[in-house]
Amino acid sequence: MAAAQTIPASTETGEDQANTVTGVAASADKIDAKQEKADAGDVIVTGTRIVRPNMTSNAPITTIDSTFLKERGLARIEDALAQLPQVTPMLGLQGQGWESGAAPVGLRSLGGGRTLTLLNGQRMDNDVNIIPGALIERIDIMTGGASAVYGSDAIAGVVNFILKRKFNGIAFDGEVSGYNHNNNNSLLAGLAKDAGYTYPRGTYLGGGNYFASLAAGKNLLDDKVNISAFATYKKADPIQFRNIDTTNCPLLMFDPNNYDAGNVKWTCAGTVYNPYNYFYAGGQNLTNARDGSRSFRPYTTADEVRIQSIDSIQRRSETVNAGGFLTADLPAGMRLSGSFLYSKIVERGFNSIDGGMYTPGSPVNCDNPFLGAQQAQVICGAKAGTTALSDPIALSLFRPGMIMNFRNSTADWRGALNLSGMIIDKIRFELSYQQTRSIYNGMADHQWVPDQAERLGRGLQVRNVGGVPTCLSKIDGSDPACQPIDAFSANTSISDAVYNWLTDTGSRRQQNDLQVINGVVSGTLEDYGIKSPLASNGIGFAITGEYRKYRNQSTGYGAWYNFTTFDGRTSVKELGGEIDIPLIEDRPFFKELSVNGGYRISDYDVYDYLVHSWKAEASWAPIDGLRFRGSYNRAVRVGVKERLEGENRYPNSLMLDLCAPPRATTDTTNGAQPRQRYTFEQCSIGMTRAQYDALTSYTGCNSQGLCPATLVNGGNSALQPERSRSKTLGVVFQPRFVPGFSATVDWYDIDIQGAFEWTRIGMAFTQCYDNKVDFFCQFYQRDPQNGRLLVADARYNNSGYTKTRGIDFSTTYNLDPKRLGIAEDIGTFNLNFNGTLTTKFEKQFAPGNTPWACLGYFGFTCRDPMPRWRHVAGVNWQLPWIKGGFGFTWRHIGGTTNSKLSSNPVLAARPDEIYKVALRIPAYNYFDFNSNVTLVKGIDVRFNVQNLFDKDPPLIGTDTNYSSDSYFNTYPTYYAVRGRTLRVGISARF
Fold first, then answer.
1. Closest C-alpha to 717, from 779, 797, 775
2. d(CA 1, CA 359)
3. How remote is the C-alpha of 372 from its chain's centroid?
4. What value does the mean pLDDT of the chain take?
5. Under 8 Å between Cβ of 340 and 324
6. In angstroms, rounded to a whole number, what is the distance separating the alpha carbons of residues 614 and 578?
7. Which of 989, 977, 986 is nearest to 179 (CA)?
8. DSSP one-letter string for 796-856
9. What are 109-120's pLDDT values in tens digits?
10. Can you name the residues that pair with 603 across neighbouring β-strands?
């Protein structure tokens, strides 16, 4: 395994250090390393704009090298990153839907929007799809605030992808991988059998991933010019739910036929429908007679049928990357460099659509030819048989086996030019321009149209015209496309014509543009006498000016026209500076003492005030091999996407509102009871007495108090910047008496105030009307006269705070047994360890509200697990007999507890909620194997296995009343769903 290690010294400035050669290297890796070292003119520094020889970082920087990536697949950079404890795990290719495609990186569980990603030190969109994996030289990960150096977004930290930009020859990399799993889970096989589902048996091998990359370059004009280009292709085959035993049966935490018993057993979920339809008419819950006689009977859940869902664990995907680099050494010591990168990813898939089509209240004409006599009497009473319209009825219409097909594509391109050189001795300049564009197109068929309830209502108003049932709206010309709907017989089903009228294809196009102009003047001043009298190195400085311009556009079509069309623009002008002051050097107890500071002023065109960020850092090395470091950063994030994105509006979304009367019901099957309306005293915090009284006659809500309203989410132009304070304290230990050993320990604390959060609209009613938190009442917007819920506002807002705290541990030991007196050459060893202990993580979504303390918990309110401890450790053996070696990796994920069992009142279960099966996820350990061997000079082959023992994931189902936020019956960002990964690869350098 190639270690991910915390750099104790100057690897980030290009220095060659023993503890950075951490992988099982073969000849191709050594050729790459030689070319990288030969190009001393392209030094890329992470965390500062100051370039100084042997400069050490005062903030912890974790680096992963190219051999680490090869062991985890050059095609899946996000999977490799996700194994580091500092990085929030990502879904990658797992799952599917119209919104899939991007692969953002997040740090410290703070979200991708709070992590700034860089490409060769320059800002880029947070999406690793554009990164050509085979060209990565290293990835630097700096956690904590960095806005003083890089500007907005660097709150959780910075991920800097450093690419190889100069080739002199040809480089080829290829990989083939797949997944292998033994389908032998007897519990899940039994559950599937009980549900009448098919289930997989034996060994699964599939889900192939294919990767090929070709890069070539040539030095010209006495090596003063280099031109390089590359092309990459990767493909992933789909894996279906039904292929893997742990996903074949989507688990329910509760038996739907005995919900009150609690979480005492698992049952299989699926698409549930009633073949006889559901009606609410005449104050009764009704369904059609089973014999097709066009008469009603009381509704019963015993009629409901469950069919197996069709879905994918891994989606089908194809990606093409291409680009080129130009580097030219110019007169007067200047260098011109340019690059262009292009990426296009296309994903296709299909999955089941659950649920039925619903109208909460639509009148029926009483001479409707589809009505039986008894049905007409129930719906219309004395008006039965006349042309009059009935009182509104509610209807849920079901069609089994509904499938959504989707296609997503994301095209990214990025062009950059850079000119750098010396102004005078040790004072350099750098000018750069870059432009990026990301175009996303998504399409899915059989989508619910926003006016589906209204269409369904028009389809229920039918009259015979010449013996042909015809919609009244078609007769009067108001809707010529209307399709008559026969919902009143068990012997009829929704025709394709009706289904296609009630649904539509939805598509969306979104384009994001970014332009950046940057200028830096930096240097060191020892040659000019500007230095501490107790230090040999002079003061270092950097002055930065930057201009950024953003543009976000979006348009929805068809069923997705409600994705608001918007075209938002914003820009920022920034001026910043850094200073690094060596105070004392090479004195007793002061091998080094230095301080570093930075300040940045940002002028956004959307604010009438300036935004400030700054940092202060210090480092003290009392002796060689021991260094203490600390930093304090005030960082900011200005929500570009969150402000520029338009509003999305979803009419007829069902929202909880017990201030309106829930519909009465006579169906008490399996103990189901209707909800009770709240008193005015309970509702008075969010409405007037007149509004409450006017709602008394409202019949639009169902028996569980869910009422139709327009759900609004998306951007909020009133957002203010969120601000963070991050602190780090650490120690670096590199004892001379243990050659090859280094260790770091770093404490971190991040506090974000005014954090951007989308409104947890699902908890708004309870927090407002039960807990009397006034902040949440604003998100329920009512009609000022009749009190009906009109809008549920789930847009982004500056809600509260997010805080996290912990300690990072890292060790690396490059061991040569000859140092221990072993004369025989048995090779060399590398041992490495990288772990994070999280001691605090909490969020507050409203001022004064109880924070969510999710550390050590999983599910429901807390969503993905948040273990206190994660680590990755490895041992590598470089063999003496051949060029290459092998290694093992141990990945550990700490245990977590069901958040419903927390004592935190926001997280805790109600007294009547019982959880006996999904109590806890134990600590999980995964083991990986890797090998890398040279066939002939310049050609290496490698083989690696992840999840060596094919360990099944922990089982966590879904709750029909509360989202546990599990996916694939577990949390696939943390736990392996697809079994063991088998991968073989080749690298060739010519």
1. 797
2. 58
3. 52
4. 87
5. yes
6. 9
7. 977
8. EEEEEEEEEEEEEEEEEEEE-GGGGT--S---EEEEEEEEEEEEEEEEESSTTSPPEE-TT
9. 998 889 999 999
10. 573
